[in-house]
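Researcher: Please translate sequence to structure tokens.
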Amino acid sequence: MNYEYPIDETWSTEEVIDVVNFFSLVEKAYENKVSRAEVLLLYRRFKQIVPSKSEEKKLFSAFAATSGYSSYHTVKRARESGDDFIKM
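Model: Translation complete:
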């Protein structure tokens, strides 16, 4: 990994950790199988921290630009899949 996760300096340490955990799981979804339920759980926590859709899009775009991984498509697949595990 040669990139940084997008974070907001106004977030608390716990919020930064939770957002990084979400982006890390998206990364893992592209490299290995991940739990669909865990993706949805971490996304729900992400939305508590970033309730604004425009801010979410900004962070997702920044992450995709540096990593090449789509958080949007990962969450979409988790929502639509009936399987216990997903892989991008």
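Researcher: Any highlights?
Model: Residues 13-31 form the longest helix (19 residues).
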